[in-house]
Amino acid sequence: MDGAMYREILANNLLPSVRALKMGRGWVFQHDNDPKHTARATMEWLRKKHLKVLEWPSQSPDLNPIENLWRELKVRIAQRQPRNLKDLEKVGHGSRTNRRFNPSKRTPRRAAAKKKGAAADQKTSAKAALVHTCPVCRTQMPDPKTFKQHFESKHPKSPMPPELVDVEA
Ligand SMILES: [Zn+2]
């Protein structure tokens, strides 16, 4: 956006808004010191329209109340995870029917990451359960009972591994 575009936005929106809100003349316009705000032509435009502008310290965007709104907008858009311009347009068009903003709600990406983590955990525990390896044929088995049954049927002539002697098959 440049100064000309900014002035056009002001022209099309600022005074109509002031009228719509019935603010009269007892108001002061506030914007920060962004170059398009402080451009000579913009300052001249504001002066011609007899608009009072609040003096604003430099480099202090956080003091600008609109920044809180921009942040809220960014958070809500990020929750919808648009991947391209088309997605972004959908987010914009769907915004009126959006569910209420709920910061405690997990985003889909985090939920997916958690799901992935759970799947990995399952895989790990499944692997951990396969701790019984037959010393003869290297088959892995989930529990000692299965192991003993395996050993007795497959390797009846081999000496029983000591950890299987007391297992009830
Ligand atoms: Zn075996």
From TrEMBL:
<feature type="region of interest" description="Disordered">
    <location>
        <begin position="84"/>
        <end position="128"/>
    </location>
</feature>
<dbReference type="InterPro" id="IPR036397">
    <property type="entry name" value="RNaseH_sf"/>
</dbReference>
<dbReference type="Pfam" id="PF13358">
    <property type="entry name" value="DDE_3"/>
</dbReference>
<dbReference type="InterPro" id="IPR026939">
    <property type="entry name" value="ZNF706/At2g23090_sf"/>
</dbReference>
<keyword id="KW-0539">Nucleus</keyword>
<dbReference type="InterPro" id="IPR045230">
    <property type="entry name" value="MBS1/2-like"/>
</dbReference>
<dbReference type="GO" id="GO:0003676">
    <property type="term" value="F:nucleic acid binding"/>
</dbReference>
<feature type="region of interest" description="Disordered">
    <location>
        <begin position="144"/>
        <end position="169"/>
    </location>
</feature>
<feature type="compositionally biased region" description="Basic and acidic residues">
    <location>
        <begin position="145"/>
        <end position="155"/>
    </location>
</feature>
<protein>
    <recommendedName>
        <fullName>Tc1-like transposase DDE domain-containing protein</fullName>
    </recommendedName>
</protein>
<feature type="compositionally biased region" description="Basic residues">
    <location>
        <begin position="96"/>
        <end position="117"/>
    </location>
</feature>
<feature type="compositionally biased region" description="Low complexity">
    <location>
        <begin position="119"/>
        <end position="128"/>
    </location>
</feature>
<dbReference type="GO" id="GO:0005634">
    <property type="term" value="C:nucleus"/>
</dbReference>
<dbReference type="GO" id="GO:0005737">
    <property type="term" value="C:cytoplasm"/>
</dbReference>
<keyword id="KW-0963">Cytoplasm</keyword>
<dbReference type="InterPro" id="IPR013087">
    <property type="entry name" value="Znf_C2H2_type"/>
</dbReference>
<dbReference type="InterPro" id="IPR038717">
    <property type="entry name" value="Tc1-like_DDE_dom"/>
</dbReference>
<feature type="domain" description="C2H2-type">
    <location>
        <begin position="133"/>
        <end position="154"/>
    </location>
</feature>
<feature type="domain" description="Tc1-like transposase DDE">
    <location>
        <begin position="26"/>
        <end position="88"/>
    </location>
</feature>
<dbReference type="Pfam" id="PF12874">
    <property type="entry name" value="zf-met"/>
</dbReference>
